[in-house]
């Protein structure tokens, strides 16, 4: 299986084989994303992106393998609600109409995926995005000579990357994906994405570190405070960070809010390396391929 992550600066991939309950990484790589081909989680130039991916992936002969894809920064909406008394055959349509009434996407351009609650009386969790955004991504992949079996969103990829076999992922977890183009805050409880927000990065692309944090830091604090109030009023919240390191003063502020220090994603449990890979690959993978490793840990 191939896990492919595309963002505005770089595309990364890993190739894995399942070995019992563990995954073995056979190869991995990356290539620059053409300038302007991906902007704010939207594929703007499918032809340019497809050509770059084809040139990078063709030597690895990935074209007959299952491919799971994550478009970093893909704009999506999360909603939670109950729909009592529905017949199973009516659920998909009812969820779609319910989400359409709550998000700023026309019904004809709406794509919805949802997760049924594990118990009676609990809420359905739905994720929605624009069909046109997905079509642009699929077109780029088709031009690259491959087709995705799965398109996933970054927060769940990062949660899986951080969740080992000794941790079922049910504890309260905030994930900070701090890349310059589209920093994100995600909050999970009981392995369900309860809250998600793209953080305003100020002048993060052109204004340096100070410009980036002037927009991100206040929204981080507000988002954590909101999740504490709405979902998890007592107990520590685990904060996982990937991307740009937190400045010390912001890390201390967050620690005071959540009752434990933030943790950087520097390893992925349950992943083995092929004997053909150097020992240094483990550190390199953890540093730059975290999302891709979480992507291939999907159970379906």
Summarize this structure as a short list of keywords or feature phrases.
Nucleotidyltransferase, domain 5, alpha/beta, 3 domains, 6-stranded mixed β-sheet, single chain, 5-stranded mixed β-sheet, 300 residues, Dna Ligase, domain 1
Word description of this protein:
- The relative contact order is 0.16.
- Helices cover 32% and strands 29% of the residues.
- The strands form four sheets. It has a six-stranded mixed β-sheet with strand order 10-6-1-2-3-16. A five-stranded mixed β-sheet has the order 13-12-11-14-15, with helices on both faces. A three-stranded antiparallel β-sheet has the order 7-9-8.
- It starts with a strand and ends in a 5-residue tail after the last helix.
- Strand 4 and strand 5 form a beta hairpin.
- It has 300 residues and is of the alpha/beta class.
- Helix 1 crosses helix 3 and helix 5 packs parallel to helix 6.
- The longest helix is centred in the last third of the chain and has 23 residues, at 208-230.
- It folds into three domains: 1-74 and 130-166 and 269-300, Nucleotidyltransferase, domain 5 (2-Layer Sandwich); 77-129, Dna Ligase, domain 1 (2-Layer Sandwich), CATH 3.30.1490; 167-264, 2-Layer Sandwich (Nucleotidyltransferase, domain 5), CATH 3.30.420.
- It contains eight helices and 16 strands.
Write the layout of secondary structure elements.
Elements: E1 2-6, E2 10-19, E3 22-32, E4 38-39, E5 42-43, H1 46-57, E6 67-71, E7 77-81, H2 88-100, E8 110-115, E9 124-130, H3 131-143, E10 150-152, H4 154-162, E11 173-178, E12 184-189, E13 192-198, H5 208-230, E14 238-243, H6 248-258, E15 263-264, E16 271-273, H7 281-288, H8 290-295
Helix pairs in contact: 1-3, 5-6
């Amino acid at each position: 299986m191939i896990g492919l992550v595309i963002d505005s600066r770089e595309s990364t991939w890993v190739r894995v084989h399942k070995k019992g309950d563990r995954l073995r990484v056979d190869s991995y790589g990356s290539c620059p994303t053409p300038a302007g081909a991906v902007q704010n989680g939207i594929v703007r130039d499918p032809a340019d992106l497809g050509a770059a991916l084809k040139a990078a992936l063709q030597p690895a002969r990935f074209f007959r393998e299952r491919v799971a894809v994550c478009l970093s920064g893909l704009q999506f909406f999360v909603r939670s609600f109950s729909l009592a008394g529905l017949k199973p055959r009516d659920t998909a349509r009812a969820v779609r109409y319910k989400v359409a009434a709550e998000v700023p996407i026309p019904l004809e351009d709406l794509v919805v995926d949802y997760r049924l609650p594990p118990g009676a009386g609990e809420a359905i969790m739905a994720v929605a995005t624009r069909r046109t955004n997905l079509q642009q991504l699929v077109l780029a992949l088709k031009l690259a000579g491959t087709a995705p079996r799965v398109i996933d969103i970054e927060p769940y990829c990062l949660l899986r990357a951080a969740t080992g076999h000794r941790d079922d992922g049910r504890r309260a977890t905030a994930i900070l994906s701090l890349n310059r183009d589209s920093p994100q805050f995600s909050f999970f409880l009981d392995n369900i994405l309860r809250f998600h927000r793209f953080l305003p990065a100020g002048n993060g692309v052109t204004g340096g570190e100070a410009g980036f944090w002037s927009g991100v830091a206040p929204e981080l604090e507000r988002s954590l405070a909101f999740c504490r109030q709405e979902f998890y009023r007592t107990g520590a919240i685990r904060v996982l960070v990937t991307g740009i390191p937190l400045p010390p003063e912001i890390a201390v502020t967050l620690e005071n809010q959540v009752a434990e220090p933030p943790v950087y994603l520097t390893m992925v449990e349950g992943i083995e390396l092929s004997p053909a890979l150097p020992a240094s690959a483990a550190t390199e993978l953890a540093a730059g391929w975290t999302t891709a490793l979480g992507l291939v840990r999907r159970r379906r």
